[in-house]
Amino acid sequence: MSDRESNGMTGMGQTAATGPADLNLLRTFLAVHRSGSFTAAARLLGLSQPTVTTQIRALERRLGCELFERQARGVVAVPFADALAARVAAPLDDLAVVTGDEGSAGAAAAGPVRLAGPAELLCLRALPALAPLVAQGVHLRASTGLTDPLLDELRSGQHDLVISTARPRGRALSAVPLMDEEFVLIAAPAVAERVGGPPAVTARGPAALHGMPLITYAEDLPIARRYWRHVFGRRLDTPAAVTVPDLRGVLALIASGAGFSVLPRYLCAAELDSGAVTLLADPEDPPINTAYLVQRTVSAVNPHVGEVRDLLLRAGRTW
Predict the structure, then answer these.
(1) Where in the chain is the domain with CATH 3.40.190.10?
(2) pTM
(3) CATH superfamily of 181-286
(4) For residue 228, which of 104, 156, 211, 236 is within the disulfide window of CB 3.0 to 4.6 Å?
(5) Following DSSP, what letter does each residue of 88-129 receive, concatenated?
(6) Any residues with CB less than 8 A from the CB of 263 and at least 6 apart, and which?
(7) Three-class SS of residue 197?
(8) pLDDT tens digit string along 288-297?
(9) In this predicted model, what pLDDT tens digit does every residue of 113-147 receive, in sequence order?
């Protein structure tokens, strides 16, 4: 949100005006709420940015409260604004369809669906599952990254859907379980033989891996630490020998005999089947992490977003 957008957004009185609100003010409000930006809403509505700012100020004066908080990029709705959007979105969208003026309610045209998530899950599972929709003419814009930044970007309107490795908090986002990831401890067969294989790890625990290089995607070892706590009941104190910010790179190193790691089973299923990598342990209760498909509670009315969401949820049952 620019400085010009934020002028006059604080310090207003709390006395609401009487009488019904102008529908144009509510349409502009809904466009800002959906896009997460005064500037983006102006482009969507075909208005100037100062006009959007003026209309939001007018609605705030009428309601007697602020609707949006300024952020480094765009704006974030306050809880009252989320509730207001939930109440007015469907009626305004229905009215826009009846009048043939669907853009005026802030409804997105059937443009590209902006999908984001972890690079590995997105590339190996989500995008291949969406191939039928692409063949039917649905356009996609895929982005990769870590969960927390992607969820922040979703809140600000930069994405339509995010595959998240954790359930988000707050009312601005809604999350549905997509799939369960099972974590496995793996190494190349030659490395497994050197440490004595699963029998040694079962008997001695992580001590059997002492001195073996640990390959991971981040310095804080989130997946490996979780595995150690869940399976071995102790804290992992082995530093990473190599970090690669892509689990496919970790897998490539493991298959090449560089060391050991903990990875999602879906990622290395083919290598396990072929014998390129092998399990170092096979616990009866392996650690599981649930991935979620997340969208804004009140999201843009792009019919393709719903199609992508529904297909991913159906596909996720088989992953």
Answers:
(1) 113-180+290-316, 181-286
(2) 0.68
(3) Periplasmic binding protein-like II (3.40.190.10)
(4) 236
(5) HHHHHHHHHHHHT-GGGGTPPPS--EEEEE-HHHIIIIIHHH
(6) 183, 184, 186, 223, 247, 250, 251, 254
(7) helix
(8) 999 999 998 7
(9) 999 999 999 999 999 999 999 999 999 999 999 89
